[in-house]
Design brief:
By secondary structure, the protein is an alpha+beta fold. The protein folds into two domains: 50 residues, Arc Repressor Mutant, subunit A (Orthogonal Bundle), CATH 1.10.10; 32 residues. 61% of the residues lie in helices and 12% in strands. It has a two-stranded antiparallel sheet. Strands 3-4 form a two-stranded antiparallel sheet. α1 crosses α3. The longest helix is centred in the last third of the chain and has 28 residues. The protein is elongated.
């Protein structure tokens, strides 16, 4: 933990520990904020950032990884749509349809 002009900076381990405390059901967000002297907005952001999701095959992903995968999927869907349009343009059409 360090302090600069923008406020206190917390290390990754500290953030993950608080998220784990919250997710385990041991403490509420308000209790954690009071006990550790952090802003509720910060804790909310950390919960979103460090929460994990387990997939059907047992792989554990962070919220950040899920967001990156969603972004990549949207990009691939857009590329797929462009390729479908290109195929429609360059595929010869028969006049007997």
């Amino acid at each position: 933990m360090s302090t600069n002009n923008r406020g206190t900076r917390y290390d990754e381990d500290f953030k993950r520990t608080l998220v784990n405390l919250y997710q385990s059901g041991g403490k509420t967000q308000a209790a954690l904020c009071r006990e550790y002297g952090i802003a509720s907005m910060s804790l909310n952001r950390w919960i979103k950032q460090y929460s994990t999701v387990e997939t059907d095959d047992g792989e554990v992903l962070t919220a950040k990884q899920v967001k990156e995968l969603q972004k990549r999927m949207a990009q691939l869907e857009e590329e797929n749509l462009i390729l479908k349009k290109a195929i429609a343009i360059f595929t010869p059409h028969s006049t007997n349809d």
